[in-house]
Amino acid sequence: MHRNVFVIENGFYLAVGFYGAQRFALEFIKPYGTLIGPFTLFHLLSAAIIAYAIIMVATAPHPRTLDDTAVA
């Protein structure tokens, strides 16, 4: 079975980003007052979660390839 190294290394932040995007979309059906344009405080918090996930994935160290000959 092929394993995607990117998903394995960044799975937590991908899940956090998905949660933030889902939460951002669901906040449109809630009756809270707007803060900036059509966005509520919780939209802004969800956007911050999405930004956090993007920054963490973008700055994550690249996975090293395993060199089987380097084992001592």
Structure description:
There is one protein chain. The chain is an all-alpha fold and 72 residues long. The chain is 56% helix and 0% strand. It has one domain. It contains two helices and no strands.
| Beta fraction | under 5%
- What is the SS-derived class? mainly alpha
Largest β-sheet summary: none
**Gyration radius, to the nearest Å?**
18 Å
The total of helices stands at: 2
Low-confidence segments: none
Mean pLDDT: 88
Number of DSSP E strands? 0
Shape: elongated
Assign a percent range to the helix content.
55-70%
Distance between the termini: 28 Å
Provide the domain count. Answer: 1
Summarize the model shown.
The chain is an all-alpha fold and 72 residues long. It has one domain (8-61).
Question: What's the topology here?
Answer:
Blueprint: H1 5-26, H2 41-58
Question: What key phrases describe this protein's structure?
Answer:
single chain
